[in-house]
Amino acid sequence: MKQYAYGRNGGHAKGHVRDAFLEMIEAFIHWRPGEPEPTVEFEERQITLKEMVGLVWNCSDTLPSDYSDLFDERPGSYAAAARIMKRELAA
User: Residue 4: what are its φ and ψ, rounded to 5°?
Assistant: First the structure.
């Protein structure tokens, strides 16, 4: 899989990256600790939550409000949502 790189100060993610991340948010919301790590299809293969958050780690694109509303902390960007999800995965 190609790595999707952003500049140090954030950046814009391609549409298919953002779409896959939104699917991961939905999988993440239904995931419970102790269950296998959620996966989604990305570029014709299944990738894990850890891989997916890495793709948007510095993405400053605004997260759609209907997805932001799914989090207690209301992340404003894809990057902020990725950090919340990674933190929950590590807990």
Answer: -100, 110
